[in-house]
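Loading example: each entry is read as two labelled lines plus one structure line.
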Amino acid sequence: MRAFSTWRGHAGCVALAMFLLVSCSTVPPAQDESQLAGSPPRYSLVFIIHGDGDYLYHDTLGRARRADKDVFERAQAIATGLPNADVVIFHEIERRHVLFLIPRHDGRAYYYRRGRLVAQESYWRDQGDSHFAPEAKLYKQFAGAQPHPPVRMLLYFGHELPEFNGLGYDESYPKRRVTINDLAEGVKNIAGESEELDLLVLATCFGGTPHTISALAPYARYIIASPENLHLSYFDLEPLASIEVGSGDADIAAFADRFARNAFDQLVSEVQTAISVVVYDVSATGAFRDSVHAAYARTLTAANGTSLAAVEHCDCASDSTYARPGMGRGLTVLYRAPRFGRMKHEQRHSGWECWRIAE
Amino acid sequence: MLSNKKKFTNSIVPTCPRNSRGATETKEHVMFTRIALRLIVVIGVLGSAGAAFGQDKVLNYFNDTALKVKATESPVQKREILSNNLSEMTRALDAAKNSSLTSAQDDMQLDRVKATLQEKSDELVGANGFDRVPDDQLNAFSTYIVQDMEQADKSITISLVAALLIVIIIILIV
């Protein structure tokens, strides 16, 4: 009896393991077409959440949090509350193994249409160079016979996207290079025929540089980014819950401003380090970006051959190589100095961050 | 190099009776090296999970200190907790750097972290051009340290070995 019980236990374990293996792959829930009837969604939002790295932070009460999981939950809540939108969420996760042997998928994608989760799928991210090709393919695949409405906003959450080198961005793939150019390529592929996005939100540290904004400029009319460190609690997403897009330039400019101010206020209430949230009106920043392009490119080339420890960020306005009259054109800069430290008396930031190589 | 290792051992062992100190140091040095190497091998085998463990442990150490500061009423005690925390972490960085297991690249990065910790120590007491942190801002200052180190953790890249060494030393110190 005991032997039978043990055998039954083992069989149960095997069955459970098989179930988990199967359930870890593709899980497309049956779509209830009746729920999808009615007027088609008017716009698409895309979230890309990088979680393949160290995303531990502590909230104001000292509780340990995982930034990627927090923002994923918030994105899900937004997705279920938008009756006129297609929302696709990509969560890039650490590659794990079953019993140390069998690799499990390292990405999960969720497709919401008019507030309902209609598909979800585990997938493999790029195994070689990263161009977000699997995400772009899945995005198109989710739409099926009903094309997505235009992508109006794309939000990326993760660590600083490197402008040079790029090794080690993914903890699971330390030898793979990921740079801001890869994200730009991914945005281009996902947006497809949507022309320019209305708004691209780059929730990373040091996203507000001339090089990064230039890389993304062809694909977005407005960009929200942080030129300094961005705390892992990220930008608050609440304004997305009441979004109405596609009504015109004035509306999207007003929304970008509202989103940035809300994020800034939220960070001010929680964070003691520096806070910078900047809205870039992309076309209006072109003159400054062009004027520093050559100098910035030379610095990146030099930095690429230098130890990382010898390279540091700085406000572009503090370096005569980059400081220009009118460099604030097209920018709405929200900045609060750190409450402590050497920079606590620096009450201004130009909104542009550059690189400096130590002598 | 040998003298460095000796200094490293001195920094983490309790004081011993004078007549047996040399022998005890050697034994403890050997024991520490064995423990450290075993932990590095075990956690190294875990790969990225090991690295995450190392990084998380360091961040939790700062967070635990902030919680202690906030739970303490007396500003004098708050300062003492913060001061001890910063000097213990500095000792751990020194010990890791002097262990000869870290690379030159690691050492440069460790020096950067050490410099930021030194600035925080200076600000706490109002030295080297810093305004002294007022008593009523010590809780906020402890949060600032946690958040600043969480951000430094993302921009300062040290090897798995260096990260683990720091963790091991913190475990032994605390």
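The two ends of chain A are 77 Å apart (CA to CA).
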